[in-house]
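Students often ask why inverse folding is considered easier than folding. One informal answer: many sequences map to the same fold, so there is more than one right answer. In these notes we will look at a single instance of the problem. The structure comes first.
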């Protein structure tokens, strides 16, 4: 049994999706970021960085793993699924996983901050991070032009990238002119395990909500950022 400590963010949903895909039994612990639960001593003992997600593998002497990419690798290696065993295949998966960890997530996260949450509209910053997010989307689209998935078969690399790319509207970035990326987004969204995973835990944010409701959500998230409570630009 695995304990999953998480919240309804792209990084959090990476792990619930993976656990559903792998059919691993787990107990969901949804942390309230607005109450700073991720900074409480009991959680810092699991993740010293005080961010979600994190897991504790009870079957492995209560082994704790933090950082979403590291958790995905751990789960894939534990089960022998969602990542090839051969060196080249494994490397391809890890390359596209690192592409998300070092590129897609940080750039979209910053786009969220400046486009949605920052009290002032700094157009230069908005243009910078939305533009870089779209550039990374074009890289993904190019890869998917000749590949069904990012690294051979469906893998943790697809899960990690999809969990962020699916939220593109919230970052103010569209998928216009990226037909291969759109095809991939739709195909993964149709997977039953993915549909279950993105509801665990459910998000207070409807990504297709009206602009008025989006602004209300952004206002609450802005308060969290201003007080230093939120650790996820992907809320």
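Output (designed amino acids):
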């Amino acid at each position: 049994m695995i304990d999953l400590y998480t919240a309804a963010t792209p990084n959090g949903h990476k792990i619930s999706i993976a656990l559903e895909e792998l059919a691993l039994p787990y107990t969901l612990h949804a942390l309230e970021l607005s109450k700073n639960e991720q900074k409480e001593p009991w959680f810092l003992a699991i993740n010293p960085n005080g961010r979600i997600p994190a897991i504790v593998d009870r079957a492995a002497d209560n082994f704790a793993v933090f950082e979403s990419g590291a958790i995905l690798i751990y789960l894939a290696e534990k089960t022998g699924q969602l990542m090839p065993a051969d060196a080249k295949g494994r490397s391809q998966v890890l390359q596209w996983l690192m592409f998300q960890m070092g590129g897609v997530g940080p750039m979209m996260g910053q786009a969220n901050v400046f486009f949605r949450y920052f009290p002032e509209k700094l157009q230069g910053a908005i243009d910078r991070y939305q533009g870089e997010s779209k550039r990374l989307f074009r890289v993904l689209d190019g890869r998917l032009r000749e590949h069904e998935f990012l690294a051979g078969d469906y893998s943790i690399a697809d899960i990690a990238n999809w969990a962020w790319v699916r939220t593109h509207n919230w970052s103010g970035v569209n998928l216009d002119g990226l037909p291969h990326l759109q095809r991939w987004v739709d195909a993964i969204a149709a997977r039953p395990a993915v549909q279950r995973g993105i509801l665990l835990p459910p998000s207070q944010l409807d990504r297709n909500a009206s602009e008025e409701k989006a602004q209300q959500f952004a206002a609450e998230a802005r308060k969290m950022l201003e007080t230093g409570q939120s650790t996820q630009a992907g809320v």
